[in-house]
Amino acid sequence: MQPEKNSKMPLTILGSAWLLAFAIYSPMFCVPPMEHIIKAEFLLTHAQASLLFSTPLMMLVLVAIPGGLIADRIGARKAAGIGIIIIVVGTILRSTATNYSSLLAFTLIFGIGVGLAFPNLPKVISAWTPRKKAGMATGVVVTGIMVGSALALAITIPLILPITNTFHGVFFFWSIPSIVAAILWWKLVKEPPRSNIHNEPTSRYKPMLLQVLKNKSLWLVAALLVLENSFFFNWVGWAPALIMLKGGTPEIAGLLTSIVQWVGIPTVILMPRLAYKLGVRKPFIWLPSIITAIAAWGAIYTDLSLMWLNVLLVGIADSTRIVVLLALPVELMPGEKVGTASGLVLSIGYLGAIIGPLIGGRILDITGSLDLSLLVLSGVSIAIAAVTFMLPETGTKNRIKQP
């Protein structure tokens, strides 16, 4: 007999989901600091080296939808558990790569695991948490993403590489969180309360994807995530270059850029709580979008000594926006469709993570400046604010009827 859904998410479930998020993103973000080392080792071009970072995101795009369908059939716990096992295999294999082809292939395996595990975290959260508190629980899990990525960026070169001596050793070190996460996930995470989705007749699932695809609000969320990821990965990817163009050293550039992630940690915990208390969601998307639009535009004219303010504003506003967006599929869809809906939204949304940095890099190549790129980012944020007004309000003050 399945346990009843409690008003509070069990700490073992929340902690395991947090560690899973950490284990997904830390092996991914240990690559950028070592890019120049890997390029020299395998005699790569910049484009080839960049694939080692973007391939997991591309696989997330490709695997997210089938991963969501799998979750709706066998359960999110099992689907995410299989995903983290694949991540373990991929991360360990990366430490054995002898050439670029094998490293890219092992990174692809890692990416398949990411595409299967990551979209199913919202499904697990929704199964254990009341719908009205899903945003707060999602915020806690998102801190795992931020801590994992920020820590990997911050300590890979100064701390981990001197201990391991090679990038192979660094890859193995960052496989350890995945190993621990896999063990704890399968040991501690139980089947969700009243989880009988996988016991339904198989015919129940044939129209599932078509039903989800017909939800117009979900397509709006997917479009918002494309724009959001385009903004975030463009900003984080090119902020160091922008700061150095303003006269900052590489050390200062890295430190200022990392503020976006560090300040996001308390933000993704506090803002969903505030949204829950106020009973609204949309203002926590369009208002931060106005702030990021101003911050991006202002960065064109901001002196180096004040760039910390722009980065701080982007960190708080963007973190608020993303944590609310990630929770929307849970609030928009009934429980049995959340896995498919999350997979669809993330699959489409992460196209922005690939497109955004490429646009920023192309603009920099052509103009030799990031001013136009910052104007594009400002426009992207304005577009997010505009599209948000087309969404139904999922907060308690104006609860939409569930389809």
Structure explained in plain terms:
The chain has two domains: 13-190, Growth Hormone, Chain: A; 208-396, Growth Hormone, Chain: A. It is built from 17 helices and no strands. The chain has helices spanning 11-29, 35-42, 46-74, 76-94, 100-117, 121-128, 134-164, 167-173, 176-188, 208-213, 216-245, 250-278, 283-298, 307-332, 338-349, 351-367, 371-388. The longest helix is centred in the middle third of the chain and has 31 residues, at 134-164. The model is unreliable at 1-5 and 195-206 (pLDDT under 50).
Quick recap of the structure?
With 403 residues, the chain is mostly helical. The chain has 17 helices and no strands.
Label this structure with key terms:
403 residues, mainly alpha, Growth Hormone, Chain: A, 2 domains, 17 helices, 0% strand, disordered N terminus
